[in-house]
Amino acid sequence: MTGFGRRLVAAVDRFGPLCAGIDPHPGLIAEWGLTDDADGLARFCAAAVEALAGHVAVVKPQAAFFERHGSRGIAVLERTLADLAGTGTLSLLDVKRGDIGSTMDGYADAYLGVGAAVAADAITVSPYLGFGSLEPAFRAAEEADRGVFVLARTSNPEGGSVQLASADGRTVAQAMVDGAAGRNTGAAPLGGVGVVVGATHDHGLQLGALNGAVLAPGLGAQGATPRDVAERFAGLSGLVLPAASRSILKAGPGVAALRSAAEAQRDELAAALTALR
């Protein structure tokens, strides 16, 4: 899976390492003075895309905040992803899908396949029905030059009860990282299977063989600093995509203020990561 990896490296080289979230939750929509409906959602996303596209490497819409508005919300999500396409900024849809057999085939068709109805450059997936259950997503992503980010060690406290359990002498989280590394073997400049590892705590994972990207949520409002990110992912073979949402979106609704917040976060990250190389 080299197509997405190549595009991601190019985007980070051009725009820096930040992944900026679009999380239009009800409280933030209200702070922006918008109505909590599909029309307010559309205005929110239009401003975010105008501010971020062509200025950061990756934009990550959170699917849940679109789905809560039903079919009209999904239509806004489709339009948001379409508006990001071709800007040089990649879309990473945070949808955390995971299932087995024909059901996983359906999710892969919806988000990753050639001609996907809700097409993103990459999506997040949940491997907790077994890493192998994600094969339809890997296959569809490879065929369409898209990417997949597998949950490994998430930042929520509840995740440890599953992710830190033992599996063949490794933690479950490490087994997910190793599975992703196996998919990325030999890919250049980077494989298309990434992992999700929270930036808010020491993860304890061996990432030296990943040859892929780590999506690292938790920057900004959740407490992780650029220096935390640089230190916690210093041994990574690949690249880290620190993700921030609220710390950027709270600067809205003005497009210029949103863009300025994102660029400041982006530049601070780049400096921290460069300093510890």
Automatic annotation (TrEMBL):
<keyword id="KW-0210">Decarboxylase</keyword>
<comment type="similarity">
    <text>Belongs to the OMP decarboxylase family. Type 2 subfamily.</text>
</comment>
<comment type="pathway">
    <text>Pyrimidine metabolism; UMP biosynthesis via de novo pathway; UMP from orotate: step 2/2.</text>
</comment>
<feature type="domain" description="Orotidine 5'-phosphate decarboxylase">
    <location>
        <begin position="17"/>
        <end position="261"/>
    </location>
</feature>
<dbReference type="InterPro" id="IPR013785">
    <property type="entry name" value="Aldolase_TIM"/>
</dbReference>
<keyword id="KW-0456">Lyase</keyword>
<dbReference type="GO" id="GO:0006207">
    <property type="term" value="P:'de novo' pyrimidine nucleobase biosynthetic process"/>
</dbReference>
<dbReference type="InterPro" id="IPR011995">
    <property type="entry name" value="OMPdecase_type-2"/>
</dbReference>
<feature type="active site" description="Proton donor">
    <location>
        <position position="96"/>
    </location>
</feature>
<dbReference type="InterPro" id="IPR011060">
    <property type="entry name" value="RibuloseP-bd_barrel"/>
</dbReference>
<dbReference type="GO" id="GO:0044205">
    <property type="term" value="P:'de novo' UMP biosynthetic process"/>
</dbReference>
<dbReference type="GO" id="GO:0004590">
    <property type="term" value="F:orotidine-5'-phosphate decarboxylase activity"/>
</dbReference>
<keyword id="KW-0665">Pyrimidine biosynthesis</keyword>
<protein>
    <recommendedName>
        <fullName>Orotidine 5'-phosphate decarboxylase</fullName>
        <ecNumber>4.1.1.23</ecNumber>
    </recommendedName>
</protein>
<dbReference type="Pfam" id="PF00215">
    <property type="entry name" value="OMPdecase"/>
</dbReference>
<dbReference type="InterPro" id="IPR001754">
    <property type="entry name" value="OMPdeCOase_dom"/>
</dbReference>
